[in-house]
Amino acid sequence: QEVADEIKANFGIEIIFQDKDLSQKKFVGVIPNNNLSMLLNALSKLYGITVKKQGQQVILSKDKEIWNEDK
């Protein structure tokens, strides 16, 4: 949730978590405050999530292939 708050403060974009456990993920590092696309791409690859931008919102959801518990 802290990353979502930083994104909103720096870019004016609201982050919506489709899955509650995604909001609980820990992120340690430097958040680039001038390149939203790079940040979202990094989060997508790091956590295996799908990122969808809709206006002033970004929706984060689990990538079903990576998060499939049957594998």
Shape: globular
Written as H for each helix and E for each strand, in order along the chain, the element string is: HEHHEEH
- What radius of gyration results from the CA coordinates? 12 Å
Mean pLDDT: 84
State the distance separating the first and last CA atoms.
28 Å
SSE class: alpha+beta
- The strand count comes to 3
Low-confidence stretches: none
Counting DSSP H or I runs of 4 or more residues, the number of helices is 4
Q: Residue share in helices?
A: 40-55%
Strand content: 15-25%
Largest sheet: 3 strands, mixed
Strand order of the largest sheet: 1-3-2
Summarize the model shown.
With 71 residues, the chain is α+β, with helices and mostly antiparallel strands. The protein has helices at 2-11, 20-23, 36-47, 64-67; strands at 14-17, 49-54, 57-62. Strand 2 and strand 3 (57-62) form a beta hairpin.
Report on the architecture of this protein.
By secondary structure, the chain is an alpha+beta fold. Helix content is 42%, strand content 23%. It has 4 helices and 3 strands. The protein has helices at residues 2-11, 20-23, 36-47, 64-67, and strands at residues 14-17, 49-54, 57-62. It has a 3-stranded mixed sheet with strand order 1-3-2. Strand 2 (49-54) and strand 3 form a beta hairpin.
